[in-house]
Amino acid sequence: MKSLADRIEDALPQTQCTKCGYAGCRPYAEAIADGSAGINQCPPGGQEGIVRLASLLDRPVIALNPVHGIERPRPVAIIDEALCIGCTLCIQACPVDAILGAPKQMHTILPDLCTGCDLCVAPCPVDCIAMVAVTTTTGWQAWTEQQAGEARARHDFRAARLLRERRDNDARLLAKAAAKLKEVESAPTLSAADSAERDRKKAIIQAAIERARIKRETDAGEAR
Fold first, then answer.
1. Is pLDDT of 42 > 60?
2. In whole angstroms, what is the distance from residue 88 CA to residue 143 CA?
3. Mean pLDDT in the chain?
4. What are phi and psi of 206, to 5 degrees?
5. Strands 73-79 and 99-100: what pairing?
6. How far apart are CA 19 and CA 131, in angstroms?
7. How far apart, in whole angstroms, are the C-alpha atoms of residue 67 and residue 43?
8. Could you tell me if 117 and 155 are in contact, meaning their C-beta atoms sit under 8 angstroms apart?
9. What pLDDT is stored for residue 224 in this prediction?
10. pLDDT digit string (tens) for 132-153?
């Protein structure tokens, strides 16, 4: 059986734009469910989105809070390829993997995958990204359940990939630290100064290993 947060998330457009003030649609859904966020903080959902949430939660329909933006035609990001320097910052910012490119190579945006979240615009150091409206309708009228579902799947896949990459990198660093600790422990000590230096290095490495252990446990908790 779906939780209240699950049902609220299903009613959100999954653009993952963070305009609501939360890191994505799921955190916003959880905030609505626990009463810490209003139902009128999602510009991409627009007034229709508020109606959906109000119906789901048996609350009155209210106006979109302008603090979070305005309801608008759905845009997609367009990269001026002549200006792009291949910095990859837009790729890192895109929550749904809608941008292709490599370091120092021209990037391109896949318009069918772009949610119009705007998150790639601010990081671009050469202002080569523009948001261009592709609909005349706004809010949920400019977005479909299928598009929302596909965007959600890409967002979740990206999040899982990034977590896996972070864990793999942490594991490599942990292995290097363990090898270094073994090397320090096996080094001969010829004097009291040598012994003190060895103990200092061991303490630094052991502290780093402990931080890595805590981080892995935290990541595992977040994944659950």
1. yes
2. 27
3. 91
4. -65, -35
5. unpaired
6. 15
7. 10
8. no
9. 53
10. 999 999 999 999 999 999 999 9
